[in-house]
């Protein structure tokens, strides 16, 4: 676990233009000084991410929001007040303090206050904003432990703060509040139902975060193994067929079928609770990769509560891959 010495060291790395991986309640982030274009460029390089993909600026508290955006609309104030610190990212009009490198050239900026003691201590020790995507290579599964980060990014990151496993396990919910009507660009750790209860109105959900960033391949949040989605009651039969035709099959077994014998190379039983499912999802996909599976058979949960974010990630993981 990170000590106060680690936090001072990490803040120094950020000040010197380096990269620090840090825990948040959702997933680990790969952070750079948001106001340093060269440091931000290193984030894209380390991830192998196209430079037109905007990053999230992490800040220490809701009262700092006005420093990073042009104006704070009433809806943003309401949502920040209710959900920060927390797994909610707000997209607002970019303030002059935010370099275009951090927003992929967009005139908007994504901002959030993470709900993790180590992240908040880092932000406080550093004093500025930390631009951070998830600390994984572009397109792959987000890391939910410090070991995942080290395994995936190695020397590309200057310092890794260890805050233990992430509590939420899927990324933040991204809400665009630049228009008259707020819309969800990516479902995540804060549920649509909770947002709607606070807003007092239904929310439009765009099932990918790409609406503002077109032209990329759809596969994302993906393990090395190919992911196939079937109906829950077909998972066992699909796994057997694929295993018998020579695949090394990994199974995310729906909780309704817990205990049912499955012919496959590796089986992970999905927890009944959506909280636990979200927390374990990425670790399970990594585990199936580690065990050498070349195909993962899974099904989608009910798309309510955290199930909406889980289904979104599974669909993206099952999307067509880049060739080569
Ligand atoms: O939970 C999280 O959000 C984690 C932790 C580290 O905070 N971060 C994360 O970052 O998931 P990343 O870069 O993997 O995903 C950020 C998403 C991207 O899909 C990006 O397109 C979207 O946020 N985004 C960032 N700025 C945006 C903007 N100005 N307009 C629309 N989408 C934006
Ligand atoms: Mg990511």
Fold and architecture overview:
This protein is of the alpha/beta class and 324 residues long. The chain has 2 domains: 209 residues, DHBP synthase; 92 residues, Rossmann fold. It is 30% helix and 17% strand. The chain is built from 9 helices and 14 strands. The strands form 2 sheets. A 10-stranded mixed β-sheet has the order 7-1-2-6-3-5-4-8-9-10, with helices on both faces. The protein has a 4-stranded parallel β-sheet with strand order 11-14-12-13, sandwiched between helices. Strand 9, helix 6 and strand 10 form a beta-alpha-beta unit. Helix 1 packs across helix 4. The protein is globular, with a radius of gyration of 19 Å. The two termini are 39 Å apart. Bound molecules: threonylcarbamoyladenylate (TXA) and magnesium ion. Magnesium ion binds next to loops. InterPro entries: DHBP_synth_RibB-like_a/b_dom (IPR017945), Sua5-like_dom (IPR006070), Sua5/YwlC_C (IPR038385), Sua5_C (IPR005145), T(6)A37_SUA5 (IPR010923), TC-AMP_synthase_SUA5 (IPR050156). Its main location: cytoplasm.
Topology:
Elements: H1 4-15, E1 20-22, E2 29-33, H2 37-47, E3 56-58, H3 74-83, E4 88-93, E5 108-112, H4 117-126, E6 130-132, H5 146-153, E7 159-160, E8 173-176, E9 183-186, H6 192-199, E10 204-205, E11 226-229, H7 235-244, E12 249-253, E13 266-269, H8 274-290, E14 295-298, H9 307-317
Parallel strand pairs: 1-7, 3-5, 4-8, 9-10, 11-14, 12-13, 12-14
Antiparallel strand pairs: 1-2, 2-6, 3-6, 4-5, 8-9
Helix pairs in contact: 1-4
The protein binds threonylcarbamoyladenylate (TXA) and magnesium ion (MG).
Magnesium ion (MG) is lined by residues 133-134, 142.
